[in-house]
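User: Predict the structure for this protein chain, please.
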Amino acid sequence: MEDQTEIIEIKPKNMFVPICITQAVCVAVILIAVLIIKFFFESSYAKLQNWCSGNLLEETTISDVFDEEVTSEA
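Assistant: Here is the predicted structure, written as structure tokens:
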């Protein structure tokens, strides 16, 4: 009796289309949620809009100055 080992090759699936569909569904759910909040809960939407403009849309300023001397070793 001979023992034989089988080599099973696992081919990866192409997951591009399912990932794109999942992302589209997530974006649609977020947009629908924002629209529902906007039309049915106006006071909450105003608070959410103020929070987003203050926290998410805050302008970034960079004020650091680099004062390093450039030296070349020859």
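Helices lie at 16-40, 42-55.
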